[in-house]
């Protein structure tokens, strides 16, 4: 399923399905288990679709039965779906605006990377692509391309029994052949459900995974969200001293630069069994299809094909080991809970002023209450294509020398308790400092002497032209109450729906984003925070306009759905340029939310209007 979804992600990116509602149908779709379907649908943010759906059919019913639902509920689902026209047979007469064809038989064993989920790498082509190659290993030292993280993570892959069972069977076969994990690889298994541990036990595969280092470390987001924990200090120091190209291999959904681990320069997405194989190989420079993983007791060379389980073996093990009672044992107690709240408890939350995890947010105050000028805006950053939500607000581990790390240190937290940016989303003072804190950021306003763009969380404050760390620039502009704009290329805001990718820039004073194109989810989040998305007309961009960040910007025109607005650019030399832009408030509802100042402000208006209407009606009666 991982190979299918990585191949589909590449295919759908090329077909440009951003903002589309996808419905999968046909002979291939019907053959996929619900676990396989969930793996595909969960990647919708990576190929940019609004939703990715499969019809209800016998596979759905089989899954409900497998996961312990009651017969009465299963019958209700089937009867309702057939009566309401939601059963798969109904799709045979469906008419679609656009039909794409994808042949499942073309899928091969696949990686994705090293920086984007849609950059597919068939493992048979690793040598030709320059990923795999001959590596001269020095005794006692890590090799080039060392895999320092090998993680079967809690993304949808671990909610798909076939994927996890396949990893367990490969681990069993590897152990029987005498293969071992390389000592520099930090390996982990973090299922999304406790039911996974139960059926691995039932299959007798838990011990085999543990022997290769894949013991269960948690039942939640870990490595995929930047929370794989610290490396062995000696390994970390060797990476620093030798400036090693160290990598991560994980069965997650996202591998954006800087996300997985501070010392993993790049990361590759892979199926759970392939993650186990790379823990044995120990380097991404390894041709995983052809090279020798090791030798067995008789001296026979062992390659991946020798330990890879067959589909028939995987299916038989799933059938024998995955049982409804496992899911009932895990989930039935959750739904049986009742909240017996003490009526005397104070109904308002008691905010702790010194908390670094949950703090009273400022979304109702000052500029965030809806006050925007769209006049005299200065660029906080001028960016290229494919800016992800991880560039805008990373979720990885917080380091001491970062703006957030320095803040947490001042708050009295020891470095080992810093955790990740993602865990501090409830404290705006920490999360604000994550804005553009990605070490892989390229802000085109900040350049080296030779004209190349510097890498890092950097900005240039204008009109002084002074370069500084991004957070210091944001603080400077906040003190000045300077409205800001961001200028960017195509596909702005790729990746997961990171609310702080929109909150962070709005708290910094950003009032508008001018880009060549937006990801649907992030565009919606920007509007929800009261930030105006503006799209350049085809053939016009930051390069054709020769923008360097010294300009100031105004937005002129009436904001209506997809209206033409004018971006007035005032250059430092006094020249004024008027650039037509498309207002990416696509619906009247989005205009209403934006004009209110954001979704919270709009909700407050609706609530107050409803209360006022109710009061008037009561008075009249």
Would you give an account of this structure?
This protein is α/β, with parallel strands linked by helices and 621 residues long. Helices cover 34% and strands 15% of the residues. It contains 22 helices and 21 strands. The strands form seven sheets. The protein has a seven-stranded mixed β-sheet with strand order 11-16-17-18-21-20-19. The longest helix has 22 residues, at 599-620. The chain is globular and about 80 Å long. The model has no long low-confidence stretch (mean pLDDT 89).
Put the structure in a nutshell.
The protein starts with a helix and ends with a helix.
Name a few traits of the molecule.
7-stranded mixed beta sheet, 621 residues, alpha/beta, 4-stranded parallel beta sheet, single chain, 22 helices, 34% helix
Strand tally: 21
* Helix fraction by DSSP (H/I, runs of at least 4): 25-40%
Shape: globular
- Please give the order of strands in the largest beta sheet: 11-16-17-18-21-20-19
Poorly predicted regions are: none
Task: Give the SSE layout.
Elements: H1 2-14, E1 21-24, H2 27-31, H3 34-41, H4 44-47, E2 51-54, H5 58-66, H6 71-84, E3 110-112, E4 120-122, E5 147-152, H7 161-176, E6 186-189, H8 194-203, H9 206-211, H10 233-242, E7 247-250, E8 266-269, H11 272-281, E9 294-295, E10 301-302, H12 304-307, H13 311-321, H14 324-335, E11 378-382, H15 389-392, H16 403-410, H17 428-431, E12 442-447, E13 453-455, E14 458-461, E15 466-469, H18 470-480, E16 484-487, H19 499-508, E17 510-515, H20 520-528, E18 532-536, E19 552-556, E20 564-570, E21 576-583, H21 588-596, H22 599-620
Parallel strand pairs: 1-2, 5-6, 5-7, 7-8, 11-16, 16-17, 17-18
Antiparallel strand pairs: 3-4, 9-10, 12-13, 14-15, 18-21, 19-20, 20-21
């Amino acid at each position: 399923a991982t190979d299918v979804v990585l191949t589909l992600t590449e295919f759908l990116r090329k077909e440009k399905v951003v903002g589309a509602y996808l419905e999968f149908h046909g002979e291939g779709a019907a053959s996929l288990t619900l676990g396989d379907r969930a793996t595909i649908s969960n990647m919708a943010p990576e190929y940019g679709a609004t939703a990715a759906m499969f019809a209800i059919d016998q596979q759905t019913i089989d899954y409900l039965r497998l996961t312990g639902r009651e017969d009465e509920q299963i019958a209700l689902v089937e009867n309702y779906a057939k009566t309401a026209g939601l059963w798969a047979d109904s799709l045979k007469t469906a008419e679609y605006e656009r039909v794409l064809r994808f042949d499942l038989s073309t899928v091969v064993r696949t990686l994705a990377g090293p920086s984007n989920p849609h950059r597919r790498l068939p493992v048979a082509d690793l040598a030709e692509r320059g990923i795999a190659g001959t590596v001269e290993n020095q005794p006692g030292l890590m090799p080039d391309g060392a895999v320092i993280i090998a993680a079967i993570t809690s993304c949808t892959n671990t909610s798909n029994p076939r994927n996890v069972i396949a990893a367990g069977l490969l681990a069993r076969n590897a152990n029987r052949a005498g293969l071992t994990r390389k000592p520099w690889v930090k390996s982990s298994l973090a299922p999304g459900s406790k039911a996974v541990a139960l059926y691995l036990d039932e299959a007798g595969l838990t011990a085999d995974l543990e022997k290769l280092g894949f013991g269960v470390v948690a039942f939640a987001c870990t490595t995929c969200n930047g929370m794989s924990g610290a490396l062995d200090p000696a390994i970390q120091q060797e990476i620093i001293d030798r400036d090693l190209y160290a990598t991560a291999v994980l069965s997650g959904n996202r591998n954006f630069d800087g996300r997985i681990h501070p010392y993993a320069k790049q990361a590759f997405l892979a199926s759970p069994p392939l993650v186990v194989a790379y823990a044995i190989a120990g380097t991404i420079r390894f041709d995983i299809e052809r090279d020798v993983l090791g030798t067995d007791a008789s001296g026979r060379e062992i390659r991946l094909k020798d330990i890879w389980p067959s589909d028939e073996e995987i299916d038989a093990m799933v059938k024998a080991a995955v049982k409804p009672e496992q899911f009932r044992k895990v989930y039935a107690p959750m739904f049986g809970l009742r909240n017996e709240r003490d009526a005397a408890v104070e109904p308002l939350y008691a905010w702790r002023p010194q908390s670094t995890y949950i703090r009273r947010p400022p979304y109702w105050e000052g500029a965030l209450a809806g006050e925007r000028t769209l006049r005299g805006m200065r660029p906080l950053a001028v960016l290229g294509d494919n800016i992800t939500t991880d560039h805008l607000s990373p979720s990885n581990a917080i380091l001491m020398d970062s703006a957030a790390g320095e803040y947490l240190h001042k708050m009295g937290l020891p470095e080992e308790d810093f955790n990740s940016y993602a865990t501090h989303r409830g404290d705006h003072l920490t999360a604000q400092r994550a804005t553009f804190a990605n070490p892989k950021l390229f802000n085109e306003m900040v350049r080296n002497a030779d004209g190349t763009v510097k890498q890092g969380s950097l900005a240039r404050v204008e009109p002084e032209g002074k370069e500084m760390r991004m957070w210091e620039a944001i603080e400077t502009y906040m003190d000045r109450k300077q409205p800001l704009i961001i200028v960017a290329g195509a596909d702005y805001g790729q990746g997961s729906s990171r609310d702080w990718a929109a909150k962070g820039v709005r708290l910094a004073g950003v009032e508008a984003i001018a880009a060549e194109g937006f990801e649907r989810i992030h565009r919606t989040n920007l509007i929800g925070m009261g930030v105006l998305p503006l799209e350049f007309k085809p053939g016009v961009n930051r390069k054709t306009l020769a923008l360097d960040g010294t300009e100031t910007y105004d937005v002129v025109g009436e904001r209506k759905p997809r209206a033409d607005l004018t971006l007035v650019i005032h250059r430092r030399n006094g020249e004024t340029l008027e650039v037509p832009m498309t207002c990416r408030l696509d619906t009247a509802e989005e205009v209403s939310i934006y004009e209110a100042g954001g979704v919270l402000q709009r909700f407050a208006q609706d609530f107050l209007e409803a209360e006022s209407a109710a009061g008037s009606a009561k008075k009249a009666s």
